[in-house]
Amino acid sequence: MRFDHRHLLGIDPLRPDEITTILDLAEHYVTFNRSRQKHANALAGLTQINMFFENSTRTQASFELAGKRLGADVMNMAMQASSIKKGETLIDTAMTLNAMHPDLLVVRHPHSGAVDLLAQKVNCAVLNAGDGRHEHPTQALLDALTIRRAKGRLHRLNIAICGDIAHSRVARSNILLLHKMENRIRLVGPPTLMPAGIEAFGTEVYHDMEEGLKDVDVVMMLRLQKERMDGGFIPSEREYYHRYGLDAAKLSHAKPDAIVMHPGPMNRGVEIDGTIADDINRSVIQDQVEMGVAVRMAAMDLLARNLRANPKDIMA
Ligand code: NCD
Predict the structure, then answer these.
(1) pLDDT-based confidence at 169, cuts 50/70/90?
(2) What distance in Å separates the CA atoms of residue 167 and residue 146, rounded to the nearest whole number?
């Protein structure tokens, strides 16, 4: 197993074999998490601090559970939105925490690049739990594990990523990962919600759901990220649902065994019809949540092995 990284800041720096290493180890933790006895000691003696400067339900809960199941001492910092003052404040906070000798720092921040900056200032391993619209590596990894388990492979699949691509770190990390694993990626959504410089992504772009979903193996829906919109990107939610919301009629254009994904939190009746989201024959949304804990255990386990193998690094 090779995973030569001190931090997990994004999918961008990872090689395909390193992605496979994380997913293979996560498979082990899927079985482990389904057993009655859920205590291991891969992180025993280590301190994990979760710093979420943005709201989160599943990501924070799963990082906390992952750490506890692997024996770490886990602390959740209550980061109030009002205390975010960018630059100086973030680095000050980081230096304060650093002085307490954490081993693993899990950080979510509303500004793209903030987690990378923080990683340069501390001595511990940093995991990016989502930075602005930049990256959300553990989400892409848990999506990859979900796809690999449902489809039996993670290459040569036709995958449609639909909706608010422009504001989505989930889309960015998924595009990077699925591209590295040699899949065909289609981005489907209104022109106003496509990122600038989309041509460089190596994907196909569709503005029509029926065309975009034709014969795909995977339909990945995204939430409308209203908190990152500072203007009118869509005419109305009703109009958006009509054109881009996933319902049975639109889904019928995908392959009959196509799976439906959503990172959550979901807006039923905006980007997805509730009955599709709940259809256990099509939707793997709950599997994504389950895979999230396993993938985060695998990522922290691998980073902790590197910490233990390079103790000097910790002291540097
Ligand atoms: C995503 C996020 O925060 O980027 N959610 C998550 O981590 N499960 C997607 C979103 O907020 O829409």
Answers:
(1) very high
(2) 23
C-alpha–C-alpha distance, residues 147 and 185, integer Å: 14
| 47 strand-pairing partners | 73
Distance, in Å, from the CA atom of 199 to the CA atom of 252, rounded to the nearest integer, reads: 28
Does the CB atom of residue 108 touch ligand 1 within 6 A? no
Tens digits of residue pLDDT in 241-266: 999 999 999 999 999 999 999 999 99
CA distance 11 to 198: 18
Give the model confidence (pLDDT) of 38-91 as tens digits. Answer: 999 999 999 999 999 888 989 999 999 999 999 999 999 877 654 555 555 788
DSSP string, 228-285: G--S--SS-HHHHHHHHSB-HHHHTTS-TT-EEE--S---BTTTB-HHHHH-TTTB-H
pTM for this predicted structure: 0.95
Q: Read out DSSP for 22-84? A: HHHHHHHHHHHHHSS-----TTTT-EEEEEESS--SHHHHHHHHHHHHTT-EEEEE---GGG-
3-state DSSP assignment of residue 315: helix
Q: Which long-range contacts (CB under 8 A, 24 or more apart) does 24-29 make?
A: 25/1, 25/298, 25/301, 25/302, 26/141, 26/142, 26/145, 26/291, 26/294, 26/295, 26/297, 26/298, 27/145, 27/294, 28/298, 29/293, 29/294, 29/295, 29/297, 29/298, 29/301
DSSP 3-state of 149: helix
| pLDDT at 28 exceeding the cut of 50 | yes
Separation of 313 CA from ligand 1 center, angstroms?
A: 32
Residue owning tokens 């024996």 = 71
* Alpha-carbon span 293 to 129, nearest angstrom: 13
Candidate from 60, 167, 170 with most ligand 1 atoms within 8 A of CB, to mutate: 170
Distance, in Å, from the CA atom of 221 to the CA atom of 218, rounded to the nearest integer, reads 10
Nearest Cα residue to 167 out of 88, 234, 251, 79? 234
The amino acid at 16: P
Residue 223 CA: nearest ligand 1 atom is: 12
